[in-house]
Amino acid sequence: MSRRLAPGRLVLATHNPGKVREIGDLLRPFGMEVVAAGDLGLPEPEETGTTFRANAELKALAAATASGLPALADDSGLCVDALDGAPGVYSARWAGEGKDFGIAMERVHRAMAFGSPDTAYFVCALSLAWPDGAVETFEGRVNGRLVWPPRGTLGFGYDAMFVAEHMDETFGEIAPEAKHAMSHRARAFEQLVAACF
To answer: Which fold has domain 8-196?
Structure first.
């Protein structure tokens, strides 16, 4: 049985403004006041996990322990079939120190052999942790394909090169509300809502 989450303050264990905006939009209807870990001055823990789940749990527990509030962490990334699942859990690292996802998308494009399959998928692990150390994790996935050159400016990360199954536009071209309805993060979030609200 999952622990219920009461309306109130919730720390979002990220320093990524795109994730703060997207997850904040998803949580607002449930009476949650989202505060980013960066706004509380909490450091970013080193992501030492080898899976999305492990990294999400590590970040959520660190933020909950440091803040004394429930904390939600997301670990997500792009997995490219032709690259044996890379960049995967290292998706943010492919963007370099400056977190330049234009560079990251270029790296993915260059790493793929000409004529290799363009299939890829996004994975999201959402971990909800409490200051007492309890943690629950929910995972979502959306399949699709990559395009080059990138298209659109509405998303973040690798969104401008990813087209979800049964769609023609990239995540960077569709309205945030449309992405919220069907993304990997939305699918993980649906499970969290069903279990904890």
So the answer is: Maf protein (3.90.950)
